[in-house]
Structures are given as C-alpha cells and as structure tokens.
Amino acid sequence: MGDKSLVYSEIIKVPLFNKFFTVYIGYDVETLQKHVENMFIGLELGDLHLSDKNSFTYMVKHYESGDNLFVLISLGTTRAKEEINVIHEAVRLSWYILEDMKIKVGLEDHQVQCYLVSHIIKSLKTAIKKGKHNLDN
C-alpha cells in the first residue's frame, strides 16, 4: 500500500458531451477530503460524513472557477468494493453531466446514459490503475 498522505489526480474528458471531471485517488478518504477542501477555499466536506465512505461524487459551484465536478476514490478497500464504488460513482457522474446538458433520460430513452456510464467506468478504471502505479512507486 502506498503513502496515505499522497493523492493522484487526473482530469477525465467526456468528449461527446464536451465535459470533464476530475478524479482524485488515494489510500485514505480523509486525505482526499482535505485535498479537495484546500483547492476550494470555503468548501467544507466534513458535514458529508466521508469517513464512512470509500468514494464520493460532488459538484462544487465555486465563485471563481465555476462548476467543478469531481469524484473521490479511496483505494483503502477490497477490490470487490472498489468495483462497486466505480459503478456507483459512474452512475452519479452521468446524472450530473446529463442534467447539466439538459438531456432527459427515462425508461424509453436511456441509451445515451448507458453509453455515458460505460465511458465513465472505463475512464475511472484506467485512472485507478495509473493512480495505484503512481502512489505505490
């Protein structure tokens, strides 16, 4: 396991939607929380009780930098739980992106969300692989 004080970050582009989000990866959710709070002055994630979570998706509407969509992924869990976290956060990210694009999805017209979730899952898994490599070396 890598140094718990380090955080790997990567900007992930969603080309078809001309959107992006940032993924922050580390071995400790409290470190991830502090890292993001330090980036956005005045942001306090403490009320969200992140210590009992291994992943989290959030949209920060910041007065200087505008909307910032990000996801935190803690590697301090089992591989099975990590897989579940990736899928869970991919669905949440898709809702943020689709809502921002004003794209309505439902039972009859959900194919666009399926493609988007697939892209996000693939991107998150690639970022996690890079993050593990960078954090462990």
Task: Explain how this protein is built.
By secondary structure, the chain is of the alpha+beta class. It is built from three helices and four strands; from the N terminus they run ββαββαα. The protein has a four-stranded mixed β-sheet with strand order 1-2-4-3. Helix 2 (79-100) crosses helix 3. The protein is globular, with a radius of gyration of 15 Å. 25% of the residues are buried. The mean pLDDT is 86.
Kindly summarize this structure in a few lines.
With 137 residues, this protein is α+β, with helices and mostly antiparallel strands. Helices cover 43% and strands 23% of the residues. The longest helix is centred in the last third of the chain and has 26 residues, at 111-136.
- What's the count of strands? 4
Helix content: 40-55%
The helix/strand class is: alpha+beta
Return residue spans where pLDDT drops below 50 for at least 5 consecutive residues: none
In what range is the share of β-strand residues?
15-25%
SSE layout and pairing:
Layout: E1 8-14, E2 19-26, H1 29-39, E3 55-62, E4 66-74, H2 79-100, H3 111-136
Parallel strand pairs: 2-4
Antiparallel strand pairs: 1-2, 3-4
Helix pairs in contact: 2-3
Defining key terms:
137 residues; alpha+beta
